[in-house]
Design brief:
globular, D-Maltodextrin-Binding Protein, domain 2, 2 domains, 27% helix, Dipeptide-binding Protein, domain 3, 521 residues, five-stranded antiparallel β-sheet
Amino acid sequence: MDTRMTRSRFRCGIAAAFTAAVLFTSTACAGGSEPEEANATNGASSNAKLALAVTAAPASLDPAQLQEGQQSYVWGSVFDTLLYVDNDGKLQPNAAESWKFSDDGLSLSLTLREGMTFSNGDTVTAKEVAGTLERTRTTPGQQQGKLAAVASIEAPNNRTVVLKLKQPEPALLTNLALAAGVIGDPDTLNEKTSALDPTASGPYTLDKGATVAGTTYVLNRRDDYWNAKAYPFKTVTVRVIQDRTAVFNALQAGELDAGNVDPAQVKQIEGAGFKTTKVEAQAVANLVLADRAGTLLKPLADERVRKAINMAFDREKMVQQVLRGSGKATVQIFNPKGAAYDAALEGSYKFDPAAAKKLMADAGYADGFDVTMPATVISKSFEPLITQALGDIGIRVTWEPVPPQNAAAAVSSKKYPMVFFLDGLNVTQRELQNNFSDAGFLNPFGSKYPELTELITQVSLERDEAKATELYKKINAFVVENALDAPLFYVGTIWATKDGIEYLGDGSNTLSTIRAFNATK
């Protein structure tokens, strides 16, 4: 095969593959400081408008069925969350003004702030918060697993919500800052209309006259919202545009104020008066070694085989020649801006096919073995390179086509021992949960290691941020040293914003939120 042609097709598919990935995706302490009250000096008096594009419409605005990724630009504006993650990746108070864990980590008490109302004017109390959480906890959907550690939920008074846990969960607070922590009106959430236009307590309401479900979502700021000054945009328009070229054209035509562009488009878009902001790591390309116990594929239970797989890839070459520098080689699954990342680990696996083949032989697989992997919308552009790299050390890959709508389900199906996935980066606690908890999306076989389990338990109970960071780094070191996965590279993104709009993110928080934008005029 002509390698130049392979690289060309691969480059053309990067944007589509990355877009698909972000659509699927992602330290416990007492409550912190007051939330940010303003991005812009004008605050709630600002009449600024923001129009941006997403690649898929929200599947539902039912709290139990919310999906994270770019869809949260809509639901994250309509719903309040108990906590929120700021642009530095730190947890902050939101609807809950403070929180506290019990010493054993099995009880979390949240104190709600006063003065919150739903969009219909009704007061938000602990009863509604507890009701929404309980409904999410007991309703099948993507968010149910995020509350799997919760045994029961109580509302002892109008401003206190207490979550009783089955076991300590380091990701719980982060989950309450995301989709699992939204607040709706439980009396209306089961109504059919709620999935399209819920009664919620967030900073925006849907403009039903201007919104076309599946195409365009127009959000109007509630100036009676308790923290309206944190939202400088009076109107936010979210347009569904799947084609990246169409996004670029819409930016140039003045139809969008912000959007993602490819590296080759930067010079032209800057020439049109836009400012660009590069985020080095938005997602991690990971060859997930899901069947680490060898249930379906015995060789994966051998650490030597997993290490050989890690040594089969020339990560730097992939970034330079295939991504054209729009990314960063890595052997780590954690956000490089997060607490677990350790630059010293990056030299752990050098590209060395000969040494990898020796490890395979030492493990008893000198003749290699066969593996079937799902061919998804995410993997399609990467398949030739993965096939070649693994083939060079004796691993013969067969790609089994999977429909686009089943790409995420294929990961968790327990049908495939290895899966290539682009996982949107998140804060450390959520990344840990997704990859290594019993209900982790990227841990479908429920792999467990006593040392890793002990470290996760320790960090669940650690209240000191510095000590928690040390534990997260130990967890990361264990993951890398035991080759529990084969990460390949981080994929970056570039935001283009028109004059008067500023993108505030640096990759510390990769979540899709309106609060990552500021109005400067």
